[in-house]
UniProtKB/TrEMBL annotation:
<dbReference type="Pfam" id="PF02467">
    <property type="entry name" value="Whib"/>
</dbReference>
<keyword id="KW-0004">4Fe-4S</keyword>
<protein>
    <recommendedName>
        <fullName>Transcriptional regulator WhiB</fullName>
    </recommendedName>
</protein>
<keyword id="KW-1015">Disulfide bond</keyword>
<keyword id="KW-0963">Cytoplasm</keyword>
<keyword id="KW-0411">Iron-sulfur</keyword>
<feature type="domain" description="4Fe-4S Wbl-type">
    <location>
        <begin position="21"/>
        <end position="78"/>
    </location>
</feature>
<keyword id="KW-0238">DNA-binding</keyword>
<keyword id="KW-0804">Transcription</keyword>
<keyword id="KW-0408">Iron</keyword>
<feature type="binding site">
    <location>
        <position position="45"/>
    </location>
    <ligand>
        <name>[4Fe-4S] cluster</name>
    </ligand>
</feature>
<dbReference type="InterPro" id="IPR034768">
    <property type="entry name" value="4FE4S_WBL"/>
</dbReference>
<dbReference type="InterPro" id="IPR003482">
    <property type="entry name" value="Whib"/>
</dbReference>
<keyword id="KW-0479">Metal-binding</keyword>
<keyword id="KW-0805">Transcription regulation</keyword>
<comment type="similarity">
    <text>Belongs to the WhiB family.</text>
</comment>
<feature type="binding site">
    <location>
        <position position="22"/>
    </location>
    <ligand>
        <name>[4Fe-4S] cluster</name>
    </ligand>
</feature>
């Protein structure tokens, strides 16, 4: 969920945030309490134009919490460990 990120990166690299659908909902949607469902956040990500760029950003910046690019923190961890370099 990029809108609450404090990471410093060039503006161009974050242009996908301009169309981020998560900007239209509250942060609790993308940072659910432990054990809560991430289904609705993932559904919103599925309709987001910047999904792939968002996921790549989260992986590159080792974002540990919340849903990014349609994947939970556990799913991003599995993807990272699998060695997959491209998604989409
Ligand atoms: S893919 Fe999901 S988390 Fe990423 S910008 Fe889009 S809605 Fe937000």
């Amino acid at each position: 969920m990029p809108m609450n990120s404090t990471a410093q990166t060039p503006d161009r690299a974050l242009s996908w945030q301009e169309t981020a659908l998560c900007a239209q909902v509250g942060p609790e949607f993308f940072f659910p309490a432990p054990g809560s469902s991430t289904r609705e956040a993932k559904e919103l990500c599925g309709a987001c134009e910047g999904r792939t760029a968002c996921l790549e950003y989260a992986l590159a910046n080792d974002e540990r919490f919340g849903v990014w690019g349609g994947l939970s923190e556990q799913e991003r961890g599995m993807l990272r460990r699998s060695g997959v370099q491209r998604y989409g």
